[in-house]
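Quick one, T. Sequence first:
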Amino acid sequence: MDYIEAYCQVEPVDPWRDILIAELADIGFESFSEEIDGFKAYIPACDYRPDAFISIHDKYVKGGPRNLSFELTRIGGKNWNAVWESNFDPVLIGNACYIRAPFHDPPGDVLHDVVIEPKMSFGTGHHETTSLIVEWLLETDLNDLSVLDMGSGTGVLAIIAHKMGAGKVTAIDNYVYAYENTKENALGNGINNMRVLHGDATLLGDELFDVIIANITRNVLLEDMAVYEKVLHKGGIMLLSGFLYFDKDAIFVKANRLGLELAGEKMQKDWVSLKFNKPIK
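Structure tokens:
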């Protein structure tokens, strides 16, 4: 499979880099790497819609940052791992979770060593939204709890939940390469009992979960949050991320209408993660 790389150079970088990443995520770009002068974004060539991309380009060229340029490159599938290896350094989160690629040396004394082969999937711990969710997980006692990871990407969050003692972990992603990547990474971490499904929120039925993770875009969260709430146990936890600070109120209003109670907020740069509890009564 071939991919499209969009190299965005923007001035000033902040806050425009995060705003543009959010816009591209909404039209299907799944992987991002930050550069000094902007960022690179990746999407399968078969999912790339020139009209949607041009719409974003024109919107911000006319009324956005001081300088903005995009360079599009088609990348053959065989070169994808080389692209990631050049951008993927190990990351330590909360002094307890070390996320690395198979070609990195294992850490010395770290509680959770997570090995991720990212390929074309989102989730290496480098992006703020992934890091924020990992911080929530490290603060939560997951022992014997059932965990659902929606939009699993590489499976990194589901894998961490499993390593932290979750009793049953389900990971779902609607991109086939992410579904396959999650399965591969689970096995690479010695996990053979994680349920990995290809699809979206329509797969959710009567099964209830103690913890639901959804690190997805704003629009998907607003569309599917009601489904997540239905399959969350009373007293359960919902961890949401994937949106910028100016979308926080929309997420909060939707959750509040569903009867969820805000239990905390985390922020890195302009990215936000919200924690909600489902009341017992």
